Amino acid sequence: MLFMDVHENLPGVTLEAVAEAHEKDLAIQDQYGVDYRRYWVDVEEGKVFCLVEAPTAEAAAAVHKEAHGLLPDHTYPVFEGS
Q: Which domain of life does the protein's organism represent (predicted)?
């Protein structure tokens, strides 16, 4: 299942910091059956959006928790369009 998780209130977030956190997710995601596919960053608003394929939203959050501790504020099931 696909999910979009949203991290809202990350003041001072940088593209470099998000790239580093994403690499940490990728390093452990297989343990949870998760595939963090892409992410987007709104530096001005301090928001990060992550597209992830996971069996559950909880599994996706577990990767973030173990990898770097930055849990999302919201997680939405999404369907990919063309």
A: Bacteria
12 — alpha (psi -120 to 50), left (phi > 0) or beta? left
Tokens encoding 64:
């973030």
Scored b (16 or more CB within 10 A) or e, 39-61 reads bebeeeeebbbbbbebeebebbb
Supply the range of the domain harboring residue 56: 2-78
Domain containing 52 — which CATH number? Answer: 3.30.70.3090
Residue 60, token pair as written in the block: 């996706």
Query: What is the tally of structural domains in the chain?
Result: 1
